[in-house]
Amino acid sequence: MTQTPQRPLRVLAxxxxxxxxxxxxxxxxxxxxxxxxxxxxxxxNPQSFRTGARGCCTIEDSRDARxxxxxxxxxxxxxxxxxxxxxxVVEDFIAEYEAGRTPNPCLRCNExxxxxxxxxxxxxxxxxxxxxxxxxxxVTGPDGTRELHRASDMAKDQSYVLGxxxxxxxxxxxxxxxxxxxxxDEIRAEAERRDLAVAxxxxxxxxxxxxxxxxxxxxxxRLGSAEGDIVDESGAKVGTHEGAHGFTIGQRKGLxxxxxxxxxxxxxxxxISPVDNTVTVGPVAALDVTAxxxxxxxxxxxxxxxxxxxxxxxLRAHGDETxxxxxxxxxxxxxxFAEAVRGVAPGQxxxxxxxxxxxxxxxxxxxxxRAGALAG
Length: 376
What we know:
Strand order of the largest sheet: 15-18-17-16-19-20
Distance between the termini: 40 Å
Low-confidence stretches: 1-5
Largest sheet: 6 strands, antiparallel, barrel
Helix content: 10-25%
Mean pLDDT: 88
Structural class: alpha+beta
């Protein structure tokens, strides 16, 4: 298979104001494509989305993107998608936590904003592709079908957060950084050679719309406080909390349990029940998950696989691969792990791989613990 595309295209480059998207736009233009830069205004209050290296989508980021476009020599626009972002990403994030699940807003943004709202508008305006600074690779087979593969450099691979893209979206996706063995320092050096002022700009991290990194504070401000019990595996009360939405499966810190466990070892969040506002804690071994079910599967550039198959799976953006057996039954993905894994929570995405190829992504609904208890 070969990387696409080869012929010159009309390309809309999504420019966040960071170094990766700037270099991606520059490479697309250098390859001979007709490139237009666009910055997505995703915040109704653009002053509030960045604190140092945290957050994004500020007026500062918009200006940085514009300056980069000027240096590259491409047209540049700012598109306001703040309302769509609020509805499809921010409100979904809040609702998922309220329901006791742990969402990944980056996947939802790629699915609903960058490769849905943005792509639809780009195609309506006559563009052939949307270009981003993600580290992943799109390849095309002899029959014209497209596949998403991991980036050449696994250390920077971002295919996990792109696993929600379908065949149509892949057909219009361009990732110029995906097939190059370059460190981030080399990307910054390239930006400097191109006279891009963002060469030394810190990368944004964490959740872009929670600039201070205080997820619990963000949720508490929107969902309020509701005191409930923290219980152990037997159901005995060991503490209280101010809102179940402030916890995630596998969490160890911030539990504020008044007395130690009988074995003197740390306790971890095992389950979150929004129905009775209860958080269950227990030993780390109780986090071992041997199987799960996942809903809303999206097959990345292909059709749903038939029958059980052997794959590797990734359960978080920077997590390791693990061997699994997976089968789609009546629209639900059933996954068994070759070895138990920990820190798996309903609401997270599981992304299946066949070698470097992304097979698809689904949202974890339930998990089966080593002891046989069903969670989620």
